[in-house]
Amino acid sequence: MITDYNGAGGGGDVLLSVRDLKVSFFTPAGEVKAVGGISYELRRGEVIGIVGESGSGKSVEAYSIMGLLQSPGRVVGGSIWLDGENVLEYDKRQMQTLRGGKVSMIFQNPMTSLNPVFTVGNQIREALLAHRAAGRAEADARAVEMLDLAGINNPEKRMRQYPHELSGGMRQRVMIALALICEPDLLIADEPTTALDVTIQAQILSLMERIQKKTKMAIIFITHNLGVVADICSRVAVMYAGYIVETGPVDEIFYRPRHPYTIGLLRSMPRVDADEFERLIPIDGTPVDMLNPPSGCPFAPRCRSCMKICLRLYPPSADFGGGHIASCWLSERGKSVSAAAAAVAAAHAPAAAKGEGGDAYE
Ligand SMILES: Nc1ncnc2c1ncn2[C@@H]1O[C@H](COP(=O)(O)OP(=O)(O)O)[C@@H](O)[C@H]1O
Ligand code: SF4
Ligand SMILES: [Mg+2]
Hints:
- Helix content is 31%, strand content 22%.
- It has 12 helices and 12 strands.
- A hairpin with a 5-residue loop joins β11 (317-319) and β12.
- The strands form 2 sheets. The chain has an 8-stranded mixed sheet with strand order 6-7-8-3-9-10-12-11, sandwiched between helices. Strands 2-1-4-5 form a 4-stranded antiparallel sheet, covered by helices on one side.
- It is α/β, with parallel strands linked by helices.
- The protein has helices at residues 58-66, 92-98, 120-131, 136-149, 155-159, 168-180, 198-215, 226-232, 250-255, 260-267, 329-332, 339-347; strands at 14-27, 30-43, 47-51, 73-82, 85-86, 103-106, 186-190, 218-223, 235-240, 243-249, 317-319, 325-327.
- Among the domains are: 103-183, no CATH class; 256-352, no CATH class.
- The two termini are 28 Å apart.
- α4 crosses α6 and α10 packs parallel to α12.
- Bound molecules: adenosine-5'-diphosphate, iron/sulfur cluster and magnesium ion (MG).
- Magnesium ion binds at residues 58-59, 190-191.
């Protein structure tokens, strides 16, 4: 089954096209279908958020684009087109050229990307020299400029420091500088702020927003926190158990959510403008056991709207227009999510999403 994610209006200058991507882990206990068949397109300069609970397949999908899947993980179906080329057919050398060149990734833990035994300056300079023709002096000047853009004070001094000499927030900024030094067309940010405290999180988010506006790169912003995407993304894809279950423009997702899982995510999220004693409603049940997923809709065991058919068959995609698509039998049967549930979800939309388009539910 394919959930199409073609964005409002479709067309445009497509940079990335993921087509029915399937990724499995072949473990001693059996095949884990981590990504069950997802499709979406991303245009140049567009920022999309991929949201879902831990274990929903967000990182595995991102690693597939970067050619970073670790054994026993393997792409078992589909294709990933970047600028018209299927990167799944790239050899090792082509993949190395792609990584850090046209596509960069930042990780939750900066130490994943930073090498502890080299100075910050050395690492940024080497990244630039590996991908762009530049002399050493030019590379150093570019590195200082990039550190400055990433909000790092005294960049010349930082160039001579080692990662362990920097604070967590500072390391994350260095990693952003490292990821952006070669001006990638696509940045994949995998939970880049999750490990940081709230104040630093906000700073890093606004930094990314500023850099994106300046460089016009496309970003895939992966997070388990739906609140974060309202600030930085124009579109959202909600993942559950290896599938995109709902996708659409940010306002649509916050104000007219169609999938019970999206509604659950919204209800479990703290509101920016709510008082301190507001009750948050967690989603009942536990995430799917990916070794033994239920047949039918993977959300069925946790869904209060579950019907008989949900236990048997995966729901088809319903198109609500403007790029808003959801996979739920309720939509297929012409039923909308209950007005009460939707109203609760709307009340939980963060302030950033409360601008235009915040009108009532049907
Ligand atoms: N090394 C591995 N071995 C077996 N299964 C894995 C491995 N890595 C990931 N998975 C499976 O893939 C699923 C998705 O993982 P991941 O993409 O990391 O989730 P997240 O959405 O939290 O980023 C997990 O629920 C797990 O079942
Ligand atoms: S398809 Fe059925 S079980 Fe799945 S989310 Fe929709 S109503 Fe719930
Ligand atoms: Mg992850």
